[in-house]
Write a structure and sequence with these properties.
Helix content is 70%, strand content 0%. The protein is mainly alpha-helical and 83 residues long. The radius of gyration is 20 Å and the shape is elongated.
Length: 83
C-alpha cells in the first residue's frame, strides 16, 4: 500500500487516533533505524501512559491573548523589514 492510498483512511481517523498513529509510526521508524524506544520499564510505562491519554493540543488560534501577541510580532517584523 502506498502513502497516497493510505491518506484517505488517515484523514477519517479521530484526532486521538491520529495522535496514536503518529506514536506508532515514530516507534516503527525508530526501530527501522536501529533504535529501541521501548527498552526500560520507565519508558514502557511512559509509552503506556501516552497510549491511554487523551491528547490535548493547544493552539494560539483559540487564545485571544496569543492571537494579539502573534499579531504584534508580525507587525513589528513588517515594520523592521520596511525600515
Amino acid at each position: 500500500m502506498t502513502f497516497i492510498q493510505v491518506l484517505p483512511t488517515v484523514s477519517q481517523l479521530s484526532h486521538q487516533d491520529k495522535l496514536r498513529l503518529i506514536h506508532f509510526l515514530l516507534l516503527a521508524v525508530a526501530k527501522e533505524e536501529g533504535c529501541n524506544l521501548e527498552t526500560s520499564d520507565s519508558e514502557n510505562t511512559l509509552l503506556e501512559q501516552l497510549a491511554a491519554t487523551d491528547a490535548v493540543v493547544w493552539s494560539p488560534q483559540t487564545d485571544n491573548q496569543s492571537i494579539q501577541a502573534l499579531s504584534n510580532l508580525l507587525a513589528t517584523a513588517q515594520e523592521q523589514a520596511n525600515a
